[in-house]
Amino acid sequence: MIERIIFTLIFLLHLSILAHGSALTTAIAANERLCFYADVDKAGEKIGFYFAVQSGGSFDIDFDVKDPNEKVLLDGERERQGDYVFTANTVGEYSFCFENDMSTLTEKLIDFDIMVESEPRREAPAKAGQISEHTSALEESIFRLNGMLMNIKRTQKHFHTRDNRGFSIVQSTQNRLFWYAIFESLAMVGMAIFQVYVLQTFFTKTGRRYKV
């Protein structure tokens, strides 16, 4: 029993070492291009790339992903969010760039995650419930738990994005209502002043006077 617990801890530590990533939130000003980089130590590693526009404008952004040879692997225009996994066939530095070129004034807030994972992918069993020859029941449970945790993480990201976008829409609506109320009040004051001026002009004699 103790040996199984020790093996579980070692296996989980092994998984945490093999996969490393960074989850960040950044603001991109209008007409700004911002790039982030991730190093790949050996060919065949898996790279996970997730992003979602949390606030700003129509919640869209341009992006592109390039390998160390400046070859475009992924790109998109006016994308609201994306979740990609691809294999790094070249060793070196990969670039992940966002560009807020379509906006002239609006700043965009982006939540993104870049993960470089060198964990070997286990082949799926031929039949449901069948365990691979070199995989124990404990490893099978850990892989299933890892998959469930990844699904929960993606669900959390989805609800986090919806919450931020909803808050941004509410805040934008409040600002518009505030300025509309200010404009309406100024218009009413202007109309009142104009009406007083018209009435004063109407009842004031401005014609020529002649002496007899």
TrEMBL record:
Signal peptide bounds: 1-21
Keywords per UniProt: Membrane, Signal, Transmembrane, Transmembrane helix
Entries under InterPro entries matching the protein: Emp24-like (IPR015720), GOLD_dom (IPR009038), GOLD_dom_sf (IPR036598)
Membrane topology listed for this record: Single-pass membrane protein; Single-pass type I membrane protein
Transmembrane segments: 177-199
PROSITE patterns found in the cross-reference section: GOLD
Domain GOLD: 33-116
Domain of life: Eukaryota
Keyword hit for Signal: yes
Subcellular location, record wording: Endomembrane system; Membrane
Record family assignment: Belongs to the EMP24/GP25L family.
Name by which UniProt lists this protein: Emp24/gp25L/p24 family/GOLD-domain-containing protein
